[in-house]
């Protein structure tokens, strides 16, 4: 189940899974003008979720966050469906904090999340699950497909599926200078793609072949991550799983216009030596120098790579699945 207008509307059907859309809207940080309308949407969401739970009769519910999860979890609770809540960020969002108070079990990416939970919450640390196809990506093969040598330095810049405008524009501003030194794979998101296409056409001919932009990739994401030497991106929850899986050093730029979840994620990786933090307002002046300083310091990059690799949990999805199966068996035994 998901929400109208969310990424799941595209990604879930693309994966061949059935998707039910529930009306709901966020309450945390939306401002007092939007709060009454958003709260009103929760009521029909709860009614629809309750109807789906009655019709589907699920053995268990896995909740991964988002405001849609609240009415669905409440409906599941009312119908005595066991609930496993997975907290993808280090700090749980408001919806997951609410759900965590009545979930049967809680799965965590890291032990650090426990300080945000009720003292007696039944929690277990599973790590962050990554798609199986990412596990099979291999650096040498990925580079050979692009014609890159072992000693070519590849910078990956991510804007996410919708894009990160400040990152995109800061990169475009210093792109010609960076391309003198390295290859840039730039996943821009859809919003800025026309602007990026135009900028790519205006690059000097001698560096144009080193720039590899795309709005987004899906199936090829594993190859992109495997081939990169350094990544610049926001600090959404996936950085806790995907970058460690590939031992990928990161420059993280938390999104500044939302609650602090991305900052907490970034601080977690920075504190363990796997990433550097760059504030959004410093992008224009510091992006180029930060990237080139890391490129010029292979020993530091190697240390960051080792630190990231130590955080990897390749069996996280299996651990979460086992928790869910165990929960259904426990409920069956009670019945």
Explain this structure.
- This protein has 335 residues and is an alpha/beta fold.
- It folds into two domains: 2-127 and 315-334, Glycogen Phosphorylase B (Rossmann fold), CATH 3.40.50.2000; 133-310, Rossmann fold, CATH 3.40.50.
- 46% of the residues lie in helices and 13% in strands.
- It contains 15 helices and twelve strands.
- It has helices spanning 8-14, 35-56, 69-78, 94-100, 132-135, 139-146, 165-179, 193-201, 205-208, 221-227, 242-246, 261-271, 283-295, 298-310, 316-334, and strands at residues 2-3, 21-22, 61-63, 83-87, 105-108, 123-125, 154-158, 183-187, 211-214, 230-233, 250-252, 275-277.
- The strands form three sheets. It has a six-stranded parallel sheet, sandwiched between helices. A four-stranded parallel sheet has the order 3-4-5-6, with helices on both faces.
- The relative contact order is 0.11.
- The mean pLDDT is 90.
Keywords, separated by commas or semicolons:
Rossmann fold; 4-stranded parallel sheet; 6-stranded parallel sheet; alpha/beta; 2 domains; elongated; 15 helices; about 325 residues
């Amino acid at each position: 189940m998901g929400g109208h207008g969310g990424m799941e509307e595209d990604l879930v059907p693309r994966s061949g899974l059935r998707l039910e859309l529930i009306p709901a809207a966020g309450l945390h940080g939306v401002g007092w003008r939007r709060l009454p309308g958003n709260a009103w949407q929760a009521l029909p969401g709860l009614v629809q979720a309750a109807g789906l739970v009655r019709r589907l009769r699920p053995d268990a519910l896995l909740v991964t966050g988002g405001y849609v999860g609240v009415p669905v979890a409440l409906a599941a609770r009312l119908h005595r469906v066991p609930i496993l809540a997975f907290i993808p960020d280090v700090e749980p969002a408001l919806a997951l904090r609410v759900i965590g108070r009545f979930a049967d079990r809680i799965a965590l990416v890291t032990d650090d999340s426990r300080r945000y939970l009720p003292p007696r919450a039944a929690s277990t640390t599973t790590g962050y699950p990554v798609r199986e196809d990412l596990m099979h990506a291999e650096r040498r093969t990925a580079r050979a497909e692009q014609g890159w040598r072992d000693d070519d330095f590849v910078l990956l810049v991510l804007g996410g599926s919708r894009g990160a405008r400040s990152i995109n524009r800061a990169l475009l501003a210093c792109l010609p200078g960076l391309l003198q030194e390295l290859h840039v794979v730039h996943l821009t998101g859809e919003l800025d793609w026309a602007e990026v296409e135009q900028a790519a056409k205006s690059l000097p001919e001698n560096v144009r072949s080193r720039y590899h932009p795309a709005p987004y990739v899906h199936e090829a994401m594993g190859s992109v991550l495997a081939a990169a030497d350094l990544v610049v991106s926001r600090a959404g929850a996936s950085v806790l799983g995907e970058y460690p899986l590939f031992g990928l050093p990161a420059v993280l730029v938390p999104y500044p216009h939302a609650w602090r979840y991305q900052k907490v994620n970034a601080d977690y990786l920075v504190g363990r030596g796997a990433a550097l933090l760059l504030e959004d307002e410093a992008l224009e002046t510091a992006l180029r120098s930060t990237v080139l300083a890391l490129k010029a310091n292979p020993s530091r990059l190697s240390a960051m790579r080792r630190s990231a690799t130590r955080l990897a949990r390749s069996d996280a999805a299996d651990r979460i699945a086992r928790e869910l199966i165990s929960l259904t068996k426990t409920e069956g035994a009670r019945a």
